[in-house]
Amino acid sequence: MQASFFSKLANVFDSGEKPAISENQQAGKNDFSNIVVDHVTGRRHQNYFEECEDYSGYCISDTRATIAVSDGCSSAKEARSAARISVEYAIEFFQDKDWNIIESDEEPQEKLVAEFISSLQAVFRTSGKDFKQLCATLSVASFDRMTNKYLVLSIGDGYVSAYTDESACRVILPPFNRDGDPSRTCFGNSDDAVELTQIEIGSVDDKHYTGFVICSDGASSLYDIENLSYGKRMLSLFADAAKNSDEALVHEKILELQSQKTYDDISIGVMMITRNDALATKIAIIDENTDLPDEDFDDTEDEVIASGTVKTKLENIDIPIQVSTLILKNFEEHHELTIQELVELGLCKQDKILSTMIPFIQEELLIYQGDKFILLPKAED
């Protein structure tokens, strides 16, 4: 699997970052995401002294956050292993994969699903477990700060919902049951998993999303049409708990859900996000023979990146005009540069790579592909 730009950054900085997979309730945060995940044993399994067959986890990197929950099928001997493998591999895959460059077109998303299911099933087959017994549902939500894009995915009967600016929470990927039978769903090892997996990739700016909550069907009382006010109140509490990194409150409320009417295991992941307002930029195409006024080059004003006929205004991003112009001139000369080459040329410091290069990618001046930044062709008039 091709390593992403930010995975490479981890290598450059020697951060040693590893996915944070929870064995019980756990919280994490950075400057753009607040996360709480938890899974608890259902009363049926408690009565028979059996282990929880749900699993949950998350990972946060410099610019991406991913949460996942999975519900192992109780009738399958490897249910617990299936849930753990599904969560851990999904987090690894979607943290590393460049899904943020995929548009909303169906075909690229279908190809991504096919690649994920194929690789997940390959992990199942090499796990040393009986492939046919590795039955588990999976729900995933991932947010990319670099593009303000989100990805949600669901295999089976889990729930995937989004919080909005209005503090409402609505289901965006509903649970799947075969022929309407709640006892029959789809798993990651199913022959038709590719066809039945739900996926959505979009922009949180367009949808005005402020967070995501994913859960197994054990938490279905959150969406009980006979008690919508209860579900709304609980979902609001989960959002507040995530914002405050209050995993204890989430655990308490999951136990409350468990006491309602379910004997099933429950797993929940909540991720509240902060959109990157610095991505709100303006691009102006000007004639290359036009003289730029002196004030456009004043570092105390909005910075300007100028290269040929392109002038890009970047609001709220501190990149001096001299550095910006020098970077673009080097790309016009070399066409593509690696992270190491940028550092060696003195164009970026290792601790400033993100803040320096993100604006160029956002303005579609550069892309990151195959371990290199590549200069994009100039737009035709």
Structural write-up:
With 381 residues, the protein is of the alpha+beta class. The chain folds into 2 domains: 5-275, Phosphatase 2c, domain 1, CATH 3.60.40; 278-375, no CATH class. It is built from 11 helices and 17 strands. β7 (159-164) and β8 (169-173) form a beta hairpin. The two termini are 38 Å apart.
Helix-strand pattern: HEEHEEHHEEEEHEHEHHEEEEHEHHEE
Largest pleated sheet: 6 strands, antiparallel
Q: At the third CATH level, what is the topology name of the largest domain?
A: Phosphatase 2c, domain 1
Broad shape: globular
What percent of the residues sit in helical stretches (DSSP H or I)? 25-40%
Topology, pairings included?
Blueprint lengths: L4 H9 L12 E4 L3 E8 L2 H5 L6 E7 L3 E8 L7 H18 L9 H20 L12 E7 L4 E7 L3 E6 L4 E5 L19 H4 L1 E6 H4 L1 E7 L12 H16 L3 H14 L5 E8 L8 E4 L17 E5 L2 E5 L6 H14 L1 E2 L1 H6 L8 H10 L3 E4 L2 E4 L6
Antiparallel strand pairs: 1-2, 2-11, 3-4, 4-5, 5-6, 6-9, 7-8, 7-10, 10-11, 12-14, 13-14, 15-17, 16-17
Helix pairs in contact: 3-4, 7-8
Q: Which short descriptors sum up this protein?
A:
globular; 2 domains; alpha+beta; 17 strands; Phosphatase 2c, domain 1; single chain; six-stranded antiparallel sheet
